[in-house]
Amino acid sequence: DFDLLLTRIKNMRGKREFFNLGE
Q: For position 7, what pLDDT does the model report?
């Protein structure tokens, strides 16, 4: 599940990293 992976990263890092991965 990609959503789960993103959630983990979001929790570990910040929204900036999350957006960077998305973009």
A: 84
Phi, psi of 6 (to 5 degrees): -60, -40
| Amino acid residing at 16 | R
Q: What is the C-alpha separation between 1 and 16, in angstroms, rounded?
A: 21
pLDDT, tens only, 3-18? 888 888 777 766 666 6
pTM: predicted TM-score of the whole model, two decimal places: 0.34
Pairwise CA distance, residues 8 & 1, whole Å: 11
Q: What is the DSSP string of 1-23?
A: -HHHHHHHHHHHS-HHHHHHHH-
